[in-house]
User: Fold this.
Amino acid sequence: MTRPAPAASAAAGEPARSSRLSRAPDRSPVFSIFVNQVRRLAGSWRYHATAWLLIATMMAAAVTAGASYRSTALEQAAVMDSHRRELAGATVDQLAEMLQPAIKPPLRLTLLVNQGQVSTPDVYSQALSPWIPPEIHRTQAGNHLLPIQEPIDWMFVIRVVLPLCAFILGYDAVCGERRSGTLKLLLSYPVPRSKVLAGRFLALWSCLAAPLLLGALLSLLVAIGPSGLPQSADDVARVGLVVLLGLWSTAFFVLLALLVSALSREDSTSLSLLAWLWVTAAIAVPAMSGLLAHRLLPVASDGEVAQRLEIVAQRIAHEYAGRAGNWRKREWARADGFAWERVSAQVEERRLALQDEIRREALARKLAQAELQRQIAAVSPAPLAEVLAELLTGSGPQRDESFIAQARAFRATLAERVRELDAVDSESPHILFFSGYLSQRPVAVGALPGFVFHERPIGLGFAAARPYLTAFALETVAVVLACLLAFAKQDTG
Amino acid sequence: MIEAVDLSKRYPNGKLALDALNLRVGPGEIYCLLGAKGAGKTTAINLFLGFLQPTAGRARIDGIDVAQEPLAAKARVAYLAATTAFYHRLTVLQNLKFFARLSGRQASRHDLEMALREVGLPESVFNQRVSELGPGGVRKLGLAAARMKGAPALLLDEPLSGLDPKAAAEVVELLEQVREQGKALLITMQDLFWARQLADRVGILQEGRQALTRTRDELRYENLEKLYLDYMRGGPQPGERTEPVRP
Assistant:
């Protein structure tokens, strides 16, 4: 049973003042504790340091993302220009052995999470002739002599900088107050501990959320303005999702700091534990995840793949010995209706199909390894947030997988168009796809379709992110409960 | 009213910190609980504040069982200790306003300033950070906060510890004023001089046991210092009642 507060008995003792003082029914203790904590934090140098660090890194992300986007777009435009020049005046016959580049455009949301997208191949060049193997490469190779640099994007801020800031601000939120003696005084007031914790949490969260949101806003303005990142309505929705993810991560790391602070007796113990957690969560786990994924799911080296391709070629050559590899001059072959050449073409197509299968397997394994690396890294909440952001923005290995699939499908579209162009020439032997056995007519400008990369729809990202979202939600609930329990059992000192 | 009925606390490590404490502090009364370090004084205060759960007995504030209704009990008790600190980055007024709000009171700046004046803090410190106050100033601010709370009972854990004689005398004077306002005060201390000066009733704790209690009248005929030292030296057995010597 809860009894009314002793206003009457107090007034008896202090008639002069108590008559003037009134109850404050509209002001929740959570709000009072929140305001008190914000006021204290706002006046501290460490808050200014962490806030500026957050804003500065987000601005750096905008500048580097903008620069990276522009230079990649320029490099890709150069590749396409070169291809257009090659196409000008080419005959249908020449198209057969000409490499047709499919280009993965730079990620518009590279500012948010460009994980992998600045280093993975963005050009898939393929010819219609089975003699020409496909080439996959990166337009902007950069200087290989430089060490591998971690991209600075919003997720770098959320994964690395934000937990650091939360830990710096919150390490003494409970144990520091116990040491100083304010906690005991605070808890001597009729305020439930859960409300004290809620006030603390809201204050720390707001103090970090404010610079995070300000940094995000400034970063977007820089990215849209001088850096020139195009932003569509769909992009805005994805930006909103990543901002929400950032705010959620802020809450998680603040709760973690409060939990460790509540469990520690000394400020130094809390700080050491949080430093250990930060190194583990933000640095060690992501680093170890790559090594573990490599160990658990090894991928074939380029040499091994080349060896397997060679074995296939030898097997086909052996299988069709004496029946394939006969390519005569067009005038001579015409006499028997290109009989040998047709068989040879079938053999080459079969070899190409088998070799393509090997390449596809090798690539699928690499993608699976990348997926596994992310699954292992997601054990830690910091990389988990990054994996979520990748899925929600359509970045990461899924985008590369989608690109390769779309590029391969483009070959079929291209082949169909070339067959159509060739079919109208009665002089052509219509043997695809070897130079010398197709129409000699020139190809009109714009006659060939161009490759257009389609980003993954946001709905697919949500579906893929669901298990990770569930995991993050469960982790958050677990930390909230642990926090409440630790604070309820907190020794006041 | 502050009341302990066979109040006991045994820690998980087996140590009996408080053994069947019985006391009753009525309105307008000061009870000084004396004892050496580790005698169980702070444990008793923590039990009254609900920070510890008793292993036996009852702690009551204004008739409310602290273990049963800790929040209702806390609303009726103010607390101040030698170790009590305020938020050193905030000013004196900001601190007082915060704690007034926590006790559910809407205090104007005028009310806050008046409360600070009443405890003898000069106006020049109102807008100073608490970190700039000396121990006496912090203790006075604590008393102002306790008075703002308007609780009928006060628990004070070593309120004079670490104060110079002048500051201690000022705090004692303030405590006497609080008593005159009809509050019940339970004060733990080691300073026998001030205990004799302040207390309406004195209790000595020895290793968690209530070794002796005396009223102000009884102490007129006895030497508190001698009694205390006897108990500290292990003289009379704990729990053994020694009758005061009357003329």
